[in-house]
Write a structure and sequence with these properties.
By secondary structure, this protein is an alpha+beta fold. Helix content is about 40%, strand content about 20%.
Length: about 90
């Protein structure tokens, strides 16, 4: 199930920049903030596990279906998207 889109752009920056897009279609403020916390934690663990070049601007955009799943599903899908990034 596709719960998010990942957009990236290689830059000359020496650090990774992450943008999170969670629209009101996903849910109320509590749900949107929970999804953003899921994203931040999943990206943090992915970057610690893998040696991903940090010279990217990355935007993760959530789809409304993401509000029905838990952290493990979000983390697994984000992991697969980052695997395609390499």
């Amino acid at each position: 199930m596709k719960m998010m889109n990942l957009y990236f752009l290689a830059t000359s920056n020496t650090h990774l920049r992450l943008g999170l897009v969670v629209s009101k279609k996903v849910g109320n403020a509590v749900v949107r903030n929970r999804i953003k916390r899921y994203f931040r934690e999943a990206v943090r663990t992915i970057l610690m596990e893998k040696a991903i070049a940090l010279s990217f601007d990355i935007v993760v955009a959530a789809k409304p279906v993401i509000s029905t799943v838990g952290f493990n599903s979000v983390s697994i899908e984000l992991q697969s998207l980052f695997d395609k990034l390499k």
